[in-house]
């Protein structure tokens, strides 16, 4: 046999066509459409976007009316992303509009068929528990920023403790521990702060626990209680006096005898009582003013948190100084007749978000104790959370 007989013939490689998997998003196969992804620009409207993509105004009105119960097309927000799925034929007409309200919620408006569909949808979200702790060096937000923590958790803590801690007066060395949740899309994409499950805050050497607990299933939102089931929210007292009467209410069109019966807005509530009657702080707060000034006479002003402030006018004597922290019911001064007044009383003024309001005509935070029948369930609920907080030590950085 010759050498040629031993030669083997090379086989040509077999080329197999690998099909690329199709992309599915929002429940649609994107390869079936011409896809336009953009964000709402200043001046954009739902109608304008659709009109510029092949939909006439009559049809736009029909679509708007059909989806009104699910989505108000007038309320699209500048900067929010949207996706248009357009036909691949020569018309290039829009067939589906997807509007992303946030990282989780989105609305699908499908008008490619005669029957318009509007669906409010959510991306699948997983919730992960997180733990954070630290020592205050300046303020809470700066400390969170330095530690690389979600600032929304700091805001959540400030809200929980708003009635027991003055966050404008935190001291270096104050400490915190917090157990909270964060949301993720597909287990990897951060989708925002969830909620605070439990926390511990030491302010001026005094530790305060807070545990979230839903006491009203209809409201569906947690209130926060301490380790003894006391509500951390503090209600305002109805009056700064233990005994007295309302002699004049908040009235923007009141005629005042002292000013010649002319109409002058009265942005306070007057409580009449004999000179020397003790005046109480209606809620916990920090004294931000204690002085004599013009028509106010001797007065004290308190800041209760980032939302509420109160002021007490015409005192004969002030019992607190600026910078002091006072508790609800603590005596801060005494009834007098200083400043512009025709009789002994305290003019009680109330601020909400920097605006003077009538405290008897707005919804104020309540402080209802946890019902006794719920307390066994509450204590069972907080036991593992408190143990988890107590295990956290400050001998290492986060």
TrEMBL record:
Keyword annotations of the record: Hydrolase, Metal-binding, Metalloprotease, Protease, Zinc
Protein name: Peptidase M23
Gene Ontology terms, MF aspect: metal ion binding; metalloendopeptidase activity
Entry GO terms, CC: cell envelope
Protein location: Cell envelope
Cofactor(s) of this protein: Zn(2+)
Residue intervals of the M23ase beta-sheet core domain: 265-359
Sequence ranges assigned to domain Csd3-like second N-terminal in this UniProt record: 131-251
Main location: other
GO terms, biological process: proteolysis
UniProt KW 4Fe-4S keyword: no
Protein's UniProt keywords contain Protease: yes
